[in-house]
């Protein structure tokens, strides 16, 4: 008599149960009945001759053997997913609408390249691209209103799955030729964080990632900003800085057009270098199109950092 053989579907179901920590949550996410899910796991355990999961009052956790098994099969399933997605993409299968949200600086740097890539490689996909502060973007992703998001590292949460993207260098943005700033610049044209703290700053509200990063950096250096006012509008704060109402901190790409036009100037923050970290976030269900876009964004960031078009480093 031929013994049953575990199949790919069983492995995928088992991995999802481990990830969700619950049969009921996994069943709801997968759209299948919980008894059917339980039968598949029992069949897999019978085939392997080991217990894979422990049930408890809060759900399920893998046994030691189950944990090792999950760690072993996960790379194999990832490789199979990648092969399937690449095959589908090569056949032009990526269709429908994909909603991508980014902070303004990232949208300025990566948005045009992403649009060109989707048009050339995924013509059946309708790309919807929007920008906003990371607090708002995080809410969109958590509510399922966007499929892919670039978030500040301060916005990581259990509600969304994230992976590292890059750290952007922060620059003090000031009017060109500003005498107050010019006397603080180092010979290389940078400005120390201690000197930044002495200036009147116009920053996003306390719930935004860049404000938290600046606050954390000041606290770590034992510094306190002398004057900070909340301005939660990108276009508005640019105009205010240009008119001499204060100074702000941005990644280079958020103000690249104004810098090129000579409307604003920038000095990289040093001693220490001030970083604005970004991660890629995805929703609960990740489609082949989503994976393809995430892969492109990671590769594009690597290319731009390597050739100097993006002012930052891989994180």
Shape: elongated
- Uncertain runs are none
Oligomer: single chain
- What's the order of the H and E elements? HHHEEHEHEHEEHEHEHEHEHEEHE
| Count of DSSP strands | 13
* Distance, first to last CA: 54 Å
Secondary structure class reads: alpha/beta
Instruction: Tell me which CATH architecture of the largest domain applies here.
Output: 3-Layer(aba) Sandwich
CATH topology of the largest domain: D-Maltodextrin-Binding Protein, domain 2
Relative strand content: 15-25%
Overall residue-averaged pLDDT value:
88
Largest sheet: 9 strands, mixed
Number of helices: 12
CATH class term of the largest domain: Alpha Beta
What is the domain total for the residues? 2
Radius of gyration: 24 Å
Describe this structure in words.
With 315 residues, the protein is α/β, with parallel strands linked by helices. The chain has two domains: 8-89, Orthogonal Bundle (Arc Repressor Mutant, subunit A), CATH 1.10.10.10; 96-315, D-Maltodextrin-Binding Protein, domain 2, CATH 3.40.190.290. Helix content is 46%, strand content 23%. The chain is built from twelve helices and 13 strands. Strands 3, 4, 5, 6, 7, 10, 11, 12 and 13 form a nine-stranded mixed β-sheet that branches. A two-stranded antiparallel ribbon has the order 1-2. The chain has a two-stranded parallel sheet with strand order 8-9. A hairpin with a 2-residue loop joins β1 (53-56) and β2 (59-62). α1 packs across α2, α1 crosses α4 and α5 packs across α12. The longest helix has 27 residues, at 64-90. It is elongated, with a radius of gyration of 24 Å.
């Amino acid at each position: 008599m031929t013994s049953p053989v575990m199949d790919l579907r069983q492995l995928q179901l088992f991995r999802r149960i481990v990830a969700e920590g619950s049969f009921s949550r996994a069943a709801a996410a997968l759209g299948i009945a919980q008894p059917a899910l339980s039968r598949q796991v029992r069949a897999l355990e019978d085939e392997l001759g080991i217990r894979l999961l422990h049930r408890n009052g809060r759900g399920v956790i893998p046994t030691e053997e189950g944990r090792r098994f999950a760690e072993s099969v996960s790379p194999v399933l990832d490789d199979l997913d990648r092969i399937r997605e690449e095959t589908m993409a090569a056949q032009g299968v990526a269709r429908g609408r994909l909603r991508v949200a980014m902070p303004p600086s990232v949208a300025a740097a990566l948005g045009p390249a992403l649009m060109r890539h989707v048009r050339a490689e995924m013509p059946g996909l309708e790309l919807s691209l929007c920008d906003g502060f990371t607090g708002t973007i995080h809410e969109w992703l958590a509510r399922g209103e966007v499929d892919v998001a670039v978030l500040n590292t301060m916005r990581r949460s259990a509600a969304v799955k994230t992976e590292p993207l890059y750290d952007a260098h922060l620059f003090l943005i000031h009017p060109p030729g500003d005498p107050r700033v010019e006397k603080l610049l180092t010979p290389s044209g940078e400005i120390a964080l201690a000197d930044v703290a002495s200036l009147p700053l116009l920053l996003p509200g306390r719930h935004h990632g860049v404000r938290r990063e600046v606050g954390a950096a000041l606290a770590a250096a034992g510094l306190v900003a002398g004057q900070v006012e909340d301005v939660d509008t990108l276009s508005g704060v640019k105009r205010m800085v240009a008119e001499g109402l204060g100074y702000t901190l941005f990644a280079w790409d958020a103000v690249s057009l104004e810098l090129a036009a000579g409307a604003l100037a920038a000095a990289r923050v040093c001693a220490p270098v001030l970083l604005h970290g970004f991660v890629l976030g995805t929703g609960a269900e990740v489609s082949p199109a989503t994976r393809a876009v995430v892969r492109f964004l990671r590769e594009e960031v690597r290319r731009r950092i390597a050739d100097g078009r993006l002012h930052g480093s891989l994180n």
